[in-house]
Amino acid sequence: MKHIPKGFLLFLFSSILLAQSTYPPPTNLVTIPTAGTLVRGSFAMKLHVQKNGGLTSGLKVGITDRFQFGLTYGASNLIGDDSLRWYPRPEVNLKYRLIDETTSMPGISLGVDTQGFGSFNNADSLKRYEIKEIGRASCRERV
């Protein structure tokens, strides 16, 4: 450590700190959305493996630095011996960041993600997924 100049260490630590502040924030933390959006011209792909062999895939695109658009589609019983059941339609993901995050204030975004998880129940009068999409009531009914 004695042979490394102090100026080099100062340069190294300052470049690490400055590089971290320019990277875009995450758009999701596991399955919970954050206020971050994709930057213009970038994209993100996801695969969500679910119980009973379900799989959902999606693609999000940064339209501007504040607005992102995405589509997801999937099926239940994709993996396994049961018959494959495709979801009835592609679902949408829209998000617009209103306020950027700072050290003293969190970021604020408005958006909607209509993709639910699990089997899609056509027999139900509400025609919904087993696990509702983020933003709707989280209670589940069992018969």
Task: Sum this structure up briefly.
By secondary structure, this protein is mainly β. It has one domain. Helices cover 12% and strands 40% of the residues.
Itemize the secondary structure elements and their pairings.
Elements: H1 6-22, E1 28-29, E2 32-33, E3 43-50, E4 54-62, E5 67-76, E6 85-86, E7 91-99, E8 108-113, E9 117-121, E10 128-131
Antiparallel strand pairs: 1-2, 3-4, 4-5, 5-6, 5-7, 7-8, 9-10
Task: State the end-to-end distance.
Answer: 68 Å
Strand content: 35-45%
Number of domains: 1
Radius of gyration from CA coordinates: 21 Å
Tell me about the biggest sheet?
6 strands, antiparallel
Give helix and strand order, one letter per element, not per position. HEEEEEEEEEE
Mean pLDDT: 81
Structural class determined from secondary elements: mainly beta
Helix content: 10-25%
Tally of DSSP β-strands: 10
Number of helices: 1
Low-confidence stretches: 136-143
Mass-distribution shape: elongated
